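Hey, quick one: can you model this chain's 3D structure?
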Amino acid sequence: MSRIEPRATWQLSELAEIWRYRELLWMLALRDLKIRYKQTAVGVAWAVLQPLVTLGLFGTLFNLLQAAPSSSGLPYALTTYCGLLPWQVFSSSVTLSARSLVTNQDLIRKVYFPRILVPAIPLVIGLIDFAIASTVLVAMMIAYQIEPTRAILLSPLFVGMTALAALGAGLWLSALNSLYRDVQQATPA
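Sure thing. Here's the predicted structure for all 189 residues.
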């Protein structure tokens, strides 16, 4: 039996190979997205409900503690929701990426494709959920009569940095989880 050894350096040709398999990444992400929402009563609305429920819990908690949580002058709900959206992308992507190699081990053994795609699938799903949940953010801004400033042009940069951080942590944890299943227990479900 032959053993696959890692290369000493990262090569540009590997990025080109990942780009060639981008349709596979998209199709696997759609497959997982359909499976995720297939037999749920609410369906895709979970992408909106998760941050809204967390927002409600934070609002209730800070209201009970009588804290003044928003020092920016913006409504607390809007400020918190803006922070929750990237956190949801990061948290769900890292958690699901950590389990991805173990979950898809049959696929990995049968067909060749760049293995980096498997931990990237949860990130694609997280970004889709982010786009859906962002519509609520726009509605909240309209409801609170908040006009976006030029700073909103930086939001793709911050979402991209969040995505790269989630991918990096997810790749690292998925590799560790394939060796030590304790990682699966350490990441929240």
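One thing worth noting: The chain has eight helices and no strands.
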